Predict the 3D structure of the following.
Amino acid sequence: MTLEEQLFTHGYARMRDALTKAECRALRGLYDEDGLFRSRVVMARHNFGSGEYKYFAYPLPEIVASLREALYRDLVQAANRWNELLRLEQRYPPTLKEYLRECALHGQTRPTPLLLHYRAGDYNCLHQDTYGELAFPFQATYFLSERSEYEGGEFVLVEQRPRAQSRPIVFAPERGECIVIPNRYRPIRGKTRVYRSVFRHGVSEIRSGERYALGVILHDAV
């Protein structure tokens, strides 16, 4: 299946070997370069879970900027179809540069790509990554650690479906894999109309070792 077909069929998409071993190593190596980041979040201080993450500052490192631009380019047509089905007015321009200009007009000027670092006992509560009035309907996580480096730490999605019990989806991703998920909503075709389900995502507890990931969010923050 194509990326778009996976999203419309399953509500998420998996891209295996999206990054090489060398690219994963390079991205992990950025974590200790504090000058690259605009902020550091210790999750326990905000009741988000346990662990920490850092938001990159502009200008983004070249590899992060390239991944973000390519992801937007690959997803923008699906995003417009997605919003049409959800009966949302927002439509997206062809390039990320144009979309970020729209974000800036709404006061959203802070970059949102981030590196996440978890150790034993850490986890991430179920959440959505919305940072202002504008929110691109998809986002991605790139997994930077070998499965042999940690236990636990599964990537968790929960889909709250209309008039039905929630659907849990759990992944144990390999190093270099990318998972694309809905930022908030998914369209589901019913017998007479399209319904909206709500997605949240998180990370189960790390039982041992440590785990790194890159989050790529396509709208900027207020």
Remarks:
- Residues 86 and 191 are 15 Å apart (CA to CA).
